[in-house]
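Narrative summary of target 7.
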Amino acid sequence: MGVPILFGWGKKGKQIGYIGIDKCPNCKNYAHFNLYEYANNFRLYFIPILKWNKKIYLVCSRCEAAWELDDEMKKVFIAESLTSPNQEITTLIWNKVGKIIEININSIMEKYPDDFITPLVELCIANLCDEISDIASIRKISLKYLEMIFDNDKAK
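Modeled conformation, tokenized:
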């Protein structure tokens, strides 16, 4: 009597990186974006043996629209995922930045009508730098939040 050989094949996807919050061109919402790898695979006894036809996609967490990345864009987004804070920290910063901006936007716009963006971003950094040491991420997320506020192309 022989030993049964269990094997399988198919397509499998897995998250390989987190990019941050940005505007989705499909649903027009500001949402989290992740990198996913999809590949055909062959398994022997549930152990992956071979992977082929590997593709990387950028995926909106809100509407799940996905865009296949070419080789150059793969490099850009993989590098971005290595320097971005994780989704939990990004959400924390986003929410705190939102509160700071909502409380102060009118007074800052009155005081600095020609350039209110810079003082608002600096205010967010000053308020958050004691608890979040990643000033570059605070700056980036603050600018993205302000972009969302003044975006005229609203979500569907």
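Residues 7-83 form one domain.
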